[in-house]
Amino acid sequence: MSRRGPALALALALVLGAPAAAGPPPGAGGLTALVPRDALGPNLLENPGFETEAGGAPVGWALRGGAWSLAPAGRGGRLALELAPGPGPIPSAEQTVRLEPGFYTLEAWVRTAELGSDGRSGVRVCLDGRPRLAWWTCSDPVRGTVDWTPLRRPMLGVVEPGTYRVTVGAWGRPDGRAWFDDVRLARVADPPLDVFLLYPNFRGMLFDDRPQTVRVAVAVADPRPGTRVRLALVPDAGGAPRAVRELAAAARLTAELDAAALPLGAYRLRAELAGPDGATLARYPDYRIVKLPAAVRRRFTVWVDEDNVVHLEDRRAFVLGIYTTSGYSTAPESYARGRDGWGTARLAEAPFNLLINYWLGIAPVPALEALMDDLHARGIYYLQTVNFYHADDPQYRTIPYPVAREGDEALNRWVAATLARHRGLAGFYTADERPAEAIPRVFRQYLALRDAAPGTVTYAVLGDGWEHQAPLWRDAVDVLGLDPYPITRPPGQNRLAMVGEWTRLGREAVQGSRPVWMVIQYFPLTTAGGWPSEEDLRTMSWMAIVEGARGLFYWSYGARGLAWVKDPAERLQRWQALVRVTREIKALEPVLLAPDAPLARDVDGPVRWLGKRAPDGSRYLFAYNPRDQRVRAAWTLAEPAREAVELGSERAVALAAPTRLEAEFGPYEVRRFRLR
What we know:
This protein is mostly beta strands.
């Protein structure tokens, strides 16, 4: 759900002034530059320019609906594929290809004449996995009269191997004519050397009281015999390497460097691919690693530990966040009261610890400070929306801060430094359902925010067809989110397992080395689907938790969500359902923050599950059924248990044996057990 608008409804008197900063911030690290991903492999399509014909039809293409013909009007060759209005199905020209996992760029050239007078029609190019997969993506449609123009979808993430259809053709039923030429589907080449810093996992900061082993994931596109991977930690100011590691090149490997003996300071992690003769074949952009004393964290509102657990003013927390909307005020009590009593005082009935108010991206600083005063007093921290703080964004001109005239880098640094003076600022919401083309500017923004406010986080959420691009975002944000919204049909017809699948997608994208905070549907996406029930909320939440989410956000308490429920009784009912679900999660926070535990030697059944061992020694097993049919599961426990209790009902569960737990699951059902 796109959340870009900083609409502002309430303007009250402003209170000037802000507390002074407590000295310069400590340095932060991380990736110093992005790797270009613009090299394409060969075109995977047969007869992409429609030059080869048989019986008046292009070889390799299946033509459906409409009036298709080959016309001597090609862009680069002699022929183009012409589409004219006609009877039958919506017209398309299709070709089936087999793809392996990776990233692909799809493009086609089109020329149109008086096409699509209906604004809900046009022509486009698509990559379609249906019916095998519930996945497809298309370019923006073109209509009207235009000369040759490209239809393009770069960096399409293909996760599942198999057959896909490339289609060019109509969207809706356009009138007029269109000509297609030079269709291309090409795999984006992997860089010769790919490196990802696994640890330190928060802004390259290596605190001296935490683990001192630098861990790096390395991938080599062509690991020929004799090639080597060279890693070194080099002082930021220059000089001889302080730690060095060299390994035989492999398609994938994990390397470690011991930084325990390194003095405090900044270093560059240098990674190179060397040939058999020692010559450098490729070099990855440096990561900056900053070794810091633990005491520096006292100045941080937020940091992330080696378990991807967030610390809020040095308290470990499982994130429970919510989106909302409101006007602004310089009076904290105005936020507390809200409209008709639905302000932050009501919101604090649930155990939320993070909040995004995405209407306040251009609110005056004193109004934001008043909001943070109110939230901080309730134990809630704030993420400021800055996803339009880019000079080429249409909303940039609405930003009232004078520093915006100096450019977006100056703006982002100023906003970060100014708002970070408040202990209630957790960080910044930097991207919402954006394609990979946005990564370079989000990364540049990240560098500015990171340097000016090191004790904060940035959070970006993917969805709306861009979720498979998640691996490309791994160094552009501190925390990655995805927003699967599976409830679009009447109850019993929705594939709730989508939440678990997308959580795994996020975890795999960051290789388990950055926090993933999932966004849970708390609004009616369609009339047919309506609102999620309380059990839907519980199921979606725990699916994400089982798959490794370190936090959950709910969309939304504000516009298009709870604030749009007109019946007071229904609104209260919807709210109380969320309060109950989040309180249940909060009650288990010590368990959720504990390390994952191998509670079972094996499991017989198609369930997904997570084991935890609580500080008191109790074992917890959380599981869900990813299928739309009933299943049975049986766990062979690693240690015997004398009792098992199902959480929620607190009902005793009979053990088949001291080391065997058996359970039956309904479609998409979540079950939670405590073992002692």
